[in-house]
């Protein structure tokens, strides 16, 4: 069960990172990457990192534990 939880955590992590990277690259493209926007981009990176941490913590603690309580009944 522990290994399954780790695998699910990894999948969630990968999925969330993918979403954030997509948003991030879209923003860079949208801002037409230039040195004047560097501070904006650094700001976005820090905001995205904080959001990522929060979402990971929320997902991994609540969603995955609930999910595996449900899944473990089937196995």
TrEMBL record:
The chain crosses the membrane at residues 12-31, 37-55. The keyword Transmembrane helix applies. Keywords: Membrane, Transmembrane, Transmembrane helix. This is Uncharacterized protein. It comes from Lutzomyia longipalpis (Sand fly). The lineage of its organism: Eukaryota, Metazoa, Ecdysozoa, Arthropoda, Hexapoda.
């Amino acid at each position: 069960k522990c290994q399954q939880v780790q695998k699910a955590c990894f999948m969630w992590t990968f999925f969330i990172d993918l979403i954030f990277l997509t948003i991030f690259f879209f923003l860079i493209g949208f801002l037409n990457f230039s040195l004047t926007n560097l501070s904006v981009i650094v700001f976005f990176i820090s905001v995205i990192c904080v959001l990522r941490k929060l979402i990971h913590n929320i997902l991994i603690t609540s969603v995955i534990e609930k999910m595996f309580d449900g899944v473990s009944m089937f196995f």
